[in-house]
Amino acid sequence: MKNDPLTPYGNRPMVTPIVSAVNYQYTSFEVLRQITEGEIDGYTYHRDDNPTVRTVERKIAQLEGAEDCVISTTGMAAATMTFLTFLQKGDHLVTFHDIYGGNYKLSLILEKFGVEITWLDALNYRDVKEHIKENTKMIFCESPSNPLIKVIDIEYLCKQADRVNALLVVDNTFATPYHQKPLAAGADLVIHSATKALGGHNDLMAGAIACSKKEYYDKLWFTRQAIGTTLDAFSASLLERGLKTFEIRAQKMSENAMQIAQFLNKHPKIKKVYYPGLETDIGHKAAIKQMKNGFGGMLAFDVGETENEAKIFVERLNKIIHAVSLGCTETLVCLPVLTTMLYMPLERRTSFGVKPNTVRLSAGIGNIQELLDDLGQALL
Fold it and tell me: If you count DSSP H runs as helices and E runs as strands, how many of each does the chain have, helices first?
């Protein structure tokens, strides 16, 4: 690869070098002009671009079937960049209650700047057609959703967005590109908290935005450069390492999640299980349509009747860890009303199906029998 700063001698290293340089010496004013005008690839300053970061962006773009990808410091940074880039005062955003609770705080900032927001229940996603307006510029969803694993038909949302030439943005963190490729179903942008399954080891924070068009990448690059949310090279290197085992981890997590869901679905102390792999799940048909290789590593379930029963269950677990985050090698549980949804007003946390006794579980890659035994003893 000629002129590639990562391969100065022609032979590419097995591990992408961590280029920690913040700035670069200009060999001539002509080269500087060619770089800044986009005639040749090159690097000038880390906030603009970094060779290690750029390598990882291309790999995530390939996973999602994207034209290109922008990675950032966190998943919330990726969401913020997307909204700031494509929404402005007077625009209308359609989104769903069933998204990561941190987005509620972001919605307050958007409203402060004059963006109108309509919130819907993901179970009723077909109602989107009744809420599309002439000034609707974006539909934003998670599928499966956080935390109740509700599945939204992405092709349907795409058709509704196309009615007014709005962007469809899908957070694919839960499904991952191993199970679902929203761009192939018509989405314009795909967001990831790469902190989760793409990284997979609880040792980095990053966000990613996979773009269906080069023009989207260019606009997002401008926003990232302007607000300074470029990922550091060391975190990018950790993310690339995680990507090397991503697919085999995603497969095992999905297999474990299915067996856990089936086990819990038969347990008398579990009132309801939320997992699209179960034939009785309301999102099963939509999941079969747009997901492959299984149904992902995330599920939720209601323990007993009260929050206290759910707390006792969590405290009795030994192998399974009580912690936030998801998509990692360990199996994790949390009570959403007390953790991921804590950013939301109390009255909103349970307005769309989440209960005080709802537990969210992120299946890891551990021995499934050990996980089932741990769940069983905690439910005694």
Answer: 14, 12
